[in-house]
């Protein structure tokens, strides 16, 4: 049952729901909110690979998100570059920056790594905020173009952008799924469980950590670039540490270290936030205690807890079946069966 809920059931059902969602609602605002949810999910999947499967919590995710967004914005608005070329270059820029930062950051561990990446994220935010001649500072970048046409396919309408982002999200989910169920994914999990043990069995931990760190920043940059092309206006606030905490909230509530967690957590929190917009100034007072209780009592989030519950049920059923089998094969049971015969 756990596997059905976690892998074979939730993700396919949610994908089917996402495909038919615009036809069910026919509401542009709902489509807008769901598109934003998909964009956030991509960033959360990157954070999940690093924190959930490798055990390294990066607090610079908002900074890389902003780098991807601003790279696309500057290349299209100021350099007047073709959208898709700028889109690819923005991902390369974010990944290269992630590689350079990862070379230093990954020499630290645990809370030192989190503190270091927190400082890196804040530095990236300050650069975007203060470098007026390049980023326009607090004025932000306006006029970022929508995704360019691909042959006869146009992405000017909200519906077309919705399906474009959904298609990219599905590719990201497939990539993450293949990674997690490969030898590489098992290597990441080995590093998470015990880095020292992973070293003793010959795993190049630095190489694998740098690989997953760059991949995580790539997804963050991809999420940021899609956000910039969808909103078409960006300001320094997208690099604020609050964005990182939002992404982390989506991950923890949905289920860290699970495939369906980023989907469940992002959709749930984003839609609840939309319904509680009148309490926007107090959102951290609302989600803070909820997140604290969740971490204490359900550390693996919604998807992880469901998987855990069903795993326990499966263990109990297996234990009962083994007990019944031992009883049926015991001499006393055989004697009783002979007497009854």
TrEMBL record:
Which residue windows are transmembrane per the record? 9-25, 31-50, 57-77, 83-105, 112-128, 162-180, 212-235, 247-272, 284-303
* A GO CC term assigned to this protein in UniProt: plasma membrane
The answer to whether UniProt assigns keyword Transmembrane to this entry is: yes
Name one molecular function that GO assigns to this entry.
branched-chain amino acid transmembrane transporter activity
List where Polar residues composition bias occurs: 328-341
Ranges for the region named Disordered are 321-341
Membrane topology per record? Multi-pass membrane protein
One Pfam family cited in the UniProt record for this chain = BPD_transp_2
Keywords, A to Z, come to: Cell membrane, Membrane, Transmembrane, Transmembrane helix
Kindly list the places in or outside the cell where this protein is found, as annotated in its UniProt entry.
Answer: Cell membrane
Q: What is this protein called?
A: Branched-chain amino acid transport system permease protein LivM
């Amino acid at each position: 049952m756990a596997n059905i809920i976690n892998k074979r059931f939730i993700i396919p059902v949610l994908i089917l729901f996402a495909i038919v969602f615009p036809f069910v609602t026919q509401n542009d605002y709902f489509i807008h909110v769901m598109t934003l949810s998909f964009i956030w999910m991509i960033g959360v999947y990157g954070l999940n690979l690093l924190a959930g499967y490798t055990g390294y919590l990066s607090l610079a995710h908002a900074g890389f998100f902003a780098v991807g967004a601003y790279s696309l914005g500057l290349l299209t608005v100021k350099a007047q570059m073709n959208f898709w070329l700028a889109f690819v270059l923005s991902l390369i820029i974010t990944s290269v920056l992630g590689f350079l930062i990862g070379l230093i950051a990954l020499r630290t561990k645990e809370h030192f790594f989190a503190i270091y990446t927190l400082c890196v994220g804040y530095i990236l935010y300050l650069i975007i905020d203060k470098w007026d001649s390049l980023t326009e500072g607090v004025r932000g970048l306006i006029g970022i173009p929508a995704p360019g046409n691909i042959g006869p396919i146009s992405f000017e309408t909200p519906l077309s952008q919705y399906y474009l982002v959904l298609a990219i999200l599905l590719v990201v989910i497939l990539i993450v799924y293949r990674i997690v169920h490969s030898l590489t994914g098992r290597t990441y999990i080995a590093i998470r469980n015990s880095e020292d043990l992973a070293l003793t069995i010959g795993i190049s931990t630095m190489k694998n950590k740098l690989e997953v760190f760059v991949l995580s920043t790539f997804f963050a940059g991809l999420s940021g670039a899609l956000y910039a092309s969808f909103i078409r206006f960006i300001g320094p606030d997208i690099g604020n540490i609050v964005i990182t905490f939002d992404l982390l909230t989506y991950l923890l509530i949905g289920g860290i270290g699970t495939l369906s967690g980023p989907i469940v957590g992002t959709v749930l929190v984003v839609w609840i936030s939309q319904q509680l917009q009148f309490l926007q100034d107090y959102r951290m007072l609302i989600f803070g205690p909820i997140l604290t209780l969740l971490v204490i009592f359900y550390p693996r989030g919604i998807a992880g807890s469901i998987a855990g519950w069903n795993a326990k049920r499966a263990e109990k059923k297996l234990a009962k079946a083994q007990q019944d089998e031992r009883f049926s094969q015991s001499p006393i049971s055989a004697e009783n069966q002979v007497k009854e015969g």
